[in-house]
Give the backbone structure.
Amino acid sequence: MSGVVQFLRCRSYEREYSILKESHTKTSERFPCLDGLRALCISVVMAGHLVGTQGYPITLDWYRLIFPSAHMGVKTFFVISGFLITYLLIREQRKYGSILLKRFFFRRILRIWPAFFGYVAFVAIFAALGWVVLKQGDLLHASTFTMNYHWVRGWPLGHIWSLSVVEQFYFLWPAVLALFGVRAGIRGAAAYVLVAPLVRVGIWYYFPDLRVGVAESFETVADNLAIGCILAATRDQLWAREGWRKFILSPWFVVVPLIVYASDHLEGFPSYGYPLGHSIENIGLALCLEWCLRNYPKRAFPRFVNHRILTAVGRMSYSLYLWQQMFLNRSAKSLLCAFPQNLLLAFAVASIAYWCLERPCMKIRPYLESRMGMIRTVPVNGIDSVGTRRTIVSRTP
């Protein structure tokens, strides 16, 4: 008899787990082009870091003249992050009537921390062995995601400033939406898009000691993320307007990326970049993101961005972001940091990190969520993800 009971419990768990997996897959729905855009972003970052490394043929002057800055890739990452996280949170709010913060934080921790702290651990070991050089406080600020306020830092952990910005956004934004509601949150984001240029200009004129942190500290770059949040919340309403549709689908839209490109090259002048340039780039990048999403698969560029090779690189862009810094070091004299082996090593080590850390964590997440009681299978209207009306109450409040 006990064997029969155990069998029935197993079958019940399997049904529950299958529902969870289906719900998990739908919630993690991928927009076409996003992975490919991430691949282009990390390519821009890596191209900027390659300049000046041993054996790299493109000089800094030529690079600055022709190519976008590495910061352009980071800004695009910010816009995509704000867009995707807001889309998922709004979708959860509409479907279940609430945002389960513990579930959100659990997913972000499992997505980011294993690969990140794995990288930091290796950097700490290499620093102890004398293979890399760190500045005082690097490990502390990296581990607490405050590197964007630690401006005198070593190269191996220097890039963590951008991840720190994203982590601070993950900590604040879901709580804002959960506590104040989506409408109030988006209004606040829109207000900050208007206020951010004043913050940058104010720091430049009245706090000269903090100038080095402009374009890195959260308060000076939060509008990058806010633009993506606003796009996620308003794109359907905007698409319902004929003028907006004509603008997004017009062949004249090519002017927008050209303006973004030109603005990026002028940002070296604070009198332009801080009050105007950053905002122009943010809006332009959000428009380009919307253009890609709306024109797929009708236009050639969105189809190219969604190519399986680019999407594969995009999926491992986080590991690439972490590990490229170790090898694309223009001040290092090691042959491991010389072109082209530095680029090959960056991809090889990032691939190992992706398959050994990132992928296993993503695969085990549904199981851990089920064990921790974070399954959300019953929407607020009483119809679950597979279309069956139920009278039971979801486990999650």
